[in-house]
Amino acid sequence: RTGPPGTGCQGQSRYGSHDGHSQNMGRSSVIGTAPDIDLDEKGQVMSAFALLINASDNIYTTRQQIQSSIEKIGLPLLVCPTTDAALQAIKEQEIAETRPALILLAPDLESQTAAARRLYQEAPLTHFAFLVEKPDPALIRQLNSPVAMIGTFWSIIDPASDNLTGQLQQAANSARQRLQ
């Protein structure tokens, strides 16, 4: 499935599923009975989602691990190929009154910190998860620097961790509280 029209993102969204060639479906087409809108246990449309910025298909295993964990914690997942596509998806989802609870920055991004800085401007209450396959002291220094300008809601997570779901659950829970 594709995400919001025109973003290049894939996954679940308030816009429902479409072929990627249609015009912007608009808000009215997703409220009501669209068959693939994610509902919570009370039947209400979910107001938060997770966003993975995955610049390359070379980390397919990472994407599968993240997707499995995100499904377990009950958030729809959008996967975007670039930071620009992610920014557009965030703007489109705001129209549909949803916000990202988690933004996951894949290890293949050229600069995870620069991407987070740009995304933070649109989503300051979001939790940023920097996915790394091995400890990166330079990344830790960058994130702890006052000039990082990404706020305090972030973590560094190994996508191969045995506790991946638990770490993402904890981050999502705190972000959902901030978003309410």
Descriptive terms for the model:
180 residues, 6-stranded mixed sheet, alpha/beta, globular
Give a verbal description of the structure:
The protein is α/β, with parallel strands linked by helices and 180 residues long. The chain has 5 helices and 6 strands, in the order ββαβαβαβαβα. Strands 1-3-2-4-5-6 form a 6-stranded mixed beta sheet, with helices on both faces.
In short:
Helix content is 34%, strand content 16%.
Q: DSSP helix count?
A: 5
Which regions have little confidence, pLDDT < 50, spanning 5+ residues?
Answer: 13-40
Strand content: 15-25%
Radius of gyration: 16 Å
Number of strands: 6
Order of helices and strands: EEHEHEHEHEH
Largest sheet, spatial ordering of strands: 1-3-2-4-5-6
Dominant shape = globular
* Quaternary structure: single chain
Please describe the topology of this protein:
Blueprint (H helix, E strand, L loop, with lengths): L9 E2 L36 E6 L6 H14 L3 E4 L2 H13 L3 E7 L6 H11 L4 E5 L5 H8 L9 E4 L6 H16 L1
Parallel strand pairs: 2-3, 2-4, 4-5, 5-6
Antiparallel strand pairs: 1-3
Helix pairs in contact: 1-5, 2-3
